[in-house]
Amino acid sequence: MTTEVEDFLNEWHRIVAERDLDGLRRVLAPEITMGAPPYWARIEGHARVHHLLGLIVNTIEGFTYHREWVQGFELALEFTGRVGELDVQGIDLITLDDRLVITRLDVMIRPMNALEALRDIITPQMVAFLQAEES
Amino acid sequence: MTTEVEDFLNEWHRIVAERDLDGLRRVLAPEITMGAPPYWARIEGHARVHHLLGLIVNTIEGFTYHREWVQGFELALEFTGRVGELDVQGIDLITLDDRLVITRLDVMIRPMNALEALRDIITPQMVAFLQAEES
Fold first, then answer.
1. Which of residues 103-132 of A touch B (CB under 8 A)?
2. Which of A69, A75, A87, A96 to mutate to test the interface with B (most CBs of B within 10 A)?
3. Which of A74, A86, A115 sits opposite B112 (nearest CB)?
């Protein structure tokens, strides 16, 4: 792992631990796309991904990172946490570019009941955000 | 990546592509535990994990592997496929031991509707298997 990617990783861990939504803004590329756990269609662009990721980071409690894989600018980061009372295990698949910002992010979680709970919390807020964007 | 792990990976790809359930039997450790996409409780032991994994491999069509991360005996393998009409993206987190068999496997998939469809197909069959085991 290069020092640059190591720095990115430290910053990512700090952002998630501190729920630093301003810091989060700085590590997302303008053209980022995100594959979110509940939906198939990718969320596109900085504003939408930042909002959705903020909702997820604020909804999952006790975010703890475990195994981490790094190959060049492709990262896979395993985490655990809780959605309400429910345990959750997940993975962030992150693609960086040479600006050291995230251009592609995919998040998958298990089990079903935690995914369902996460979706029920974030979907209404995401819908409200998209409607406000249009108006 | 060592040659041993590379051989394992080639064999894993072959097993999944050919749905080779006998081959699958050989790469699972007796004491394997699996975190399956729908359930939180881990599935324990060779017979149960082999059965569940067989159901998953037979349910997901068009299994294709993409990004793969290897660090020692810890692997993260991204895949896509379909559950019925639904697209699915997933990850296998695999721990090998020095016998080159899987001692721990975690599988996560997105999106929600594909996970739901997978659960609806595999759960009744897994329940039937566990009931037969007990009798």
1. 106-116, 119
2. A69
3. A115
3-class DSSP state of A46:
helix
Report the length, in residues, of chain A: 135
Contact B110 A67 (CB under 8 A): no
Q: What is the pLDDT of residues A25-75, one digit of tens each?
A: 999 999 999 999 999 999 999 999 999 999 999 999 999 999 999 999 999
B83 DSSP 8-state letter: E
Asked if B40 lies within 8 A of A110 by C-beta distance, the reply is: yes
Phi, psi angle pair for B13, to nearest 5° = -60, -40
The answer to whether A112 contacts B110, with C-beta atoms less than 8 Å apart, is no
Q: What ipTM is given for this predicted complex?
A: 0.95
**Mean pLDDT (whole number) for A75-99:** 97
Q: What is the mean pLDDT of each run of 10 residues along chain B (135 residues)?
A: 94 97 98 97 97 96 97 98 98 97 98 97 94 85
Measured on CA atoms in the order B127, B19, B27, B95, is the torsion positive or negative?
A: negative
Fold classification of A3-128 is Nuclear Transport Factor 2; Chain: A, (3.10.450)
Measured between beta carbons, which residues in chain A are less than 8 angstroms from residue B1? none
Provide the β-strand partners of residue A34.
Answer: A43, A105
CA–CA–CA angle B119, B124, B126 (5° rounding): 85
B70 CB within 8 Å of a chain A CB: yes
Residue given tokens 């997978």 in the structure block: B118
Which residue type occupies A61?
E
Question: Domain residue spans in chain B?
Answer: 3-128
Tokens coding B42: 């881990």
